[in-house]
Specification:
Distance between the termini: 34 Å
CATH topology: Thrombin, subunit H
Largest sheet: 6 strands, antiparallel, barrel
Radius of gyration: 15 Å
Number of strands: 8
Structural class: mainly beta
Shape: globular
CATH superfamily: Bacteriophage SPP1 head-tail adaptor protein
CATH class: Mainly Beta
Number of helices: 1
Helix content: under 10%
Low-confidence stretches: none
Order of helices and strands: HEEEEEEEE
Strand content: over 45%
Strand order of the largest sheet: 1-2-5-8-7-6
CATH architecture: Beta Barrel
Mean pLDDT: 87
Number of domains: 1
């Protein structure tokens, strides 16, 4: 089965924008959609603890798979339906730069 056939849902990738409030001078953060209707697959993280080569991510609630694109743990987040997820780790799922695996933490849990 091809990787594309495994992608059974879509997500929105949001990008963080930092600025300053013109009245208070305080730093502000807003999220804006940078890519919509991105094909992906969302799975539950098994056992709540996910290990990478260098770290253990106990907060990971889900694993997301998608085709390769530029995405960052620090400046992006994922929205699927009404759920929003922080990105804990982005890795190359295929080993050849074609598919990404993202460890996610559901916001609000």
């Amino acid at each position: 089965m091809s990787f594309n056939r495994l992608l059974n849902t879509t997500c929105t990738i949001q990008a963080l924008t930092k600025g300053y409030d013109s009245i208070s001078g305080q730093e502000t953060e807003t999220w804006a959609n940078s890519a919509a209707s991105v094909k992906c697959r969302l799975d539950q993280a098994k056992g709540g603890e996910v290990r990478s080569a260098t770290s253990i991510y106990e907060k990971a609630t889900h694993i997301l798979f998608m085709k390769n694109r530029t995405i960052s743990e620090e400046t992006n987040r994922i929205v699927i339906g009404s759920e929003t997820f922080n990105i804990l780790l982005v890795s190359d799922a295929s080993g050849h730069g074609r598919h990404l695996e993202l460890l996610l933490e559901r916001i609000g849990e």
